[in-house]
Amino acid sequence: MVLCVVGGIGAIVWHGLGGDYDKYGRVDVPGSATVTLPQGQVNICYAVRLATNGSGGALTVPDLSFSMDSPDGARDPVVTEDVGGTVSVNSAAHVRVWRLQVKDPGRYHVTTDGDVGGYIAPQLTFGSGSRVPLWPVAVFGLLSVVMLGLAVVATHAARPNPAGALPAPVARPTTTTPAALPPPTTPEQELARLAQLQQLTDLHTAGTLSDAEYDAARARLGG
Predict the structure, then answer these.
(1) In terms of domains, do 90 and 192 share one?
(2) In this structure, are residues 18 and 129 in contact, taking their beta carbons and an 8 Å threshold?
């Protein structure tokens, strides 16, 4: 995940920097210097130093001007104003101001001027635009999101139960309480019961009690 994020950020920064914006040289404002330019398109940027690191918002382009002396036999470049977005890296910032179409490569003498009071180390830079395609940015961004999601899921799955959390209830086996046993009898009570059983037997023998009455009475006495 770290490699994907770093790669994505690197691609974005590389693309956002607009390529080597000072590849062909720098000229102080105001000032003069010689720059070696190739044939083709060259970006001219206004670059300054910032008082603090980080982005300070859009860089305001002051009134600027420059002139170029072409080498012997070379045609004059074609200048087109094309102000771009501000790019800030640490304590440096730059913004594209012109595009220069160079017909003949060579050493060009540049003279600059401008209302740059209050700016730190103002310069015009001559460089190339970005050749980095945008698809790596999208690929790295997608991979970063996927890896971040997997990391979040893994973190939640490995997280222990919070302190004080009660465990899930455990089913306990049910038990049945046996029926209460009759209290034990004393010897006197047992003799009285036997006497009553004998009396019932005598009454049944004498015909006083029917069979049903005799059986019911014996059952009540536990006989």
Answers:
(1) no
(2) yes
10-residue mean pLDDT profile of the chain (223 residues): values are 46 52 96 97 96 76 96 96 91 94 97 94 90 53 76 72 60 58 69 83 84 84 71
DSSP state of 132: -
Contact between 36 and 70 (Cβ < 8 Å)? no
Domain carrying residue 99: 19-129
Count of beta carbons in the 10 Å neighbourhood of residue 17: 17
In Å, the largest CA–CA distance within the chain is 161
Same domain, 46 and 120: yes
In a domain, 9, yes or no: yes
Q: Is the pTM of this model over 0.85?
A: no
